[in-house]
Amino acid sequence: VSHVLGVLRKAGQPFGTVSVNVSAEWLEEPEFVRMTLAALRASSVDPRSVVLEITESSLLRDLAERGHRLEELRRWGIRIAIDDFGTGYSSLSYLRELPIDIVKLDKEFVSDVDTSTESRLIVQAILNLAKALRLEVIAEGVERESQFAALVALGCNAFQGFLLGRPASLEEAKAMAMRQWPANPFANDYDWSTAQPSPVENIVHADFRRHTA
After folding, report:
1. What is the pLDDT of residue 201?
2. What is the pLDDT averaged over residues 184-191?
3. Is residue 25 classed exposed, middle or buried when 0-12, 13-18 and 19+ CB atoms within 10 A define those classes?
4. What confidence tens digit (pLDDT) does each residue in 77-117 have?
5. Which residue from 66, 73, 83, 193 could staple onto 53, CB 3.0 to 4.6 Å apart?
6. Does residue 93 lie in a domain region?
7. 63: which residues sit within 8 A by CB, 6+ positions away?
8. How do 79-85 and 18-22 pair as beta strands?
9. Is the CB of residue 11 less than 8 Å from the CB of residue 174?
10. C-alpha distances in angstroms, 63 versus 36, 38, 146?
11. How far apart are CA 132 and CA 64, in angstroms?
């Protein structure tokens, strides 16, 4: 992924942020942080253009250690998203314990948000909680206009699903990016030689969000 981003950047190809799924095995790798940063550095990719998506199932063990690794990456500007949020046993504790920027609402809650009062109430509660914690919410699995309309009415403003776009080849994705971004916000080389991670105290943690919202 970092290589592709580097090629696109050098070609002047516009793109926004790119999300990368992180497996449980990769998150357990002791060199996870170093190797991730090295891959971005090798392609001169701006870490602020990358979102790492972590599934709840990958966080079942060693939560504190994994939280430290994610925090280190976040200090470099990489954003962290929890994928399939709401399907695990400890969803709420992740919001408290982990350095999270984005919550991806599982499609289980989205599938009948347009027909089920219970689903609408759950989605509304998650949106309210995320707002209080200053987290972005992305609704997954949006496939119908009625789902989209229901989510908008509840205050959701970020979506993912077949209604908005299907899996695409690199060339198709490039054409889509050209339509969406007139200029590349990450076009310039990221100067890794002088880059420094942000001090921990400058990062908005979940605990800080909870007490200052």
Report:
1. 46
2. 62
3. exposed
4. 999 999 988 876 667 888 888 899 999 999 999 999 999 99
5. 83
6. yes
7. 93, 94, 97, 98
8. unpaired
9. no
10. 19, 24, 37
11. 23
Strand partners, 138: 104
Q: Domain containing 125: what range?
A: 4-207
Residue 17 has a pLDDT of: 78
* 21-29, long-range: CB < 8 A, 24+ apart: 21/53, 21/55, 21/83, 22/52, 22/53, 22/54, 22/58, 23/58, 24/55, 24/57, 24/58, 27/54, 27/58, 27/59, 27/66, 27/69, 28/62
Q: What is the pLDDT of residue 12?
A: 58
Residue 210 pLDDT class (50, 70, 90 cuts): very low
Q: Which residues pair with 136 in a beta bridge?
A: 102
- Per-residue model confidence as pLDDT tens digits over 140-160: 999 999 999 999 999 999 999
Number of domains in the chain: 1
Bridge partners of 50? 18
Within-domain flag for 178: yes
For residue 212, being part of any structural domain is answered with no
Distance CA(190)–CA(195), nearest Å, equals: 8
Question: Which pair of tokens denotes residue 168?
Answer: 């695409």
| Cα end-to-end distance, the chain, whole Å | 35
CATH of the domain at 53: 3.20.20.450
pTM score, whole prediction: 0.80
